[in-house]
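User: Some background: our group keeps a shared notebook of sequences we're curious about, and every so often someone picks one and asks for a predicted structure to add to the entry. Today it's my turn. The entry only has the sequence so far, pasted here. Could you supply the structure so I can complete it?
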Amino acid sequence: MIILGTRGNAVDTLKTAWHVCPSCQMNVPFNVQLIYRYFHLYFIFGVITSHQYVETCPNCLRRQIVPKEALPLEIRQGRYANITHQFGMAALAVFIIVMILINAIK
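Assistant: Of course. Here's the predicted structure to add to the notebook entry:
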């Protein structure tokens, strides 16, 4: 039985971006989260299908989607997704290719 499907995950980046909230009009540190969806095979081998950054005002709890270009560089360059969700399918493909090459040599 092959188990495959899609799931989602939200990861706190532990970084903040200071600016004025459009809702409560206060200059506060917004908490930035990475929210992503991924396709998986056996819950181990995955590939990210979509992602977005969402910031939340700690004062009024207003959430808004932020374009990646508008975020500070340290947030954009960080890897926050689970490594098996991000590179699992690529690792599986490399493993299968190596096994085929090993069997072709014998």
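Suggested note for the entry: Residues 4-105 form one domain. The chain is about 25% helix and 45% strand.
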